[in-house]
Amino acid sequence: MPEFIPFRFKVSLFNVTDDAAKALVAQGAFSDISGLEISMSAKTIKEGGRNWGDVQLAGKTTFPTLVLKRGITDIDDLYAWIDISTRQANYAYRMQGLIEVFDQNFSNSTSSAQPILSWHIENAMAVKFKSADLSANASAVAIEELHLVHEGLQLTRRKPQGAA
After folding, report:
1. Whether the predicted model's global pTM rises above the 0.70 cut
2. Three-state DSSP class for residue 92
């Protein structure tokens, strides 16, 4: 009996040609996504005559690598992206991304499902693609891991039904 893996996260990648137009390039569903994190290091300044503590200023903001695990896609578009970025002439090819989070009742066949929240990814670039191991008696998924570096995240929440 095949192993059931719930896909609650849909990842869409867009080629942005101008500010208004987005062309969908790749899409997949994943069971695990990690690295949705933003960290800022504080800059400490010691000021003469200020005896009650140091001045804390905002420092550099960093974003860890997003790791998308156990995914499936209809076509080889996610592999094609890293292939274009590594082997072909489009080094460091970047796209805009959207990670949509659905509730427990999400079905990939339901196109009208609305996400609970969405993460917008700025200037994502694929840096690692790992396929599932091939085994005749395994029920593996097509993509074991996809690693993305990026330049920013933005969270959008769905408004509850009836909210203005």
Report:
1. yes
2. coil
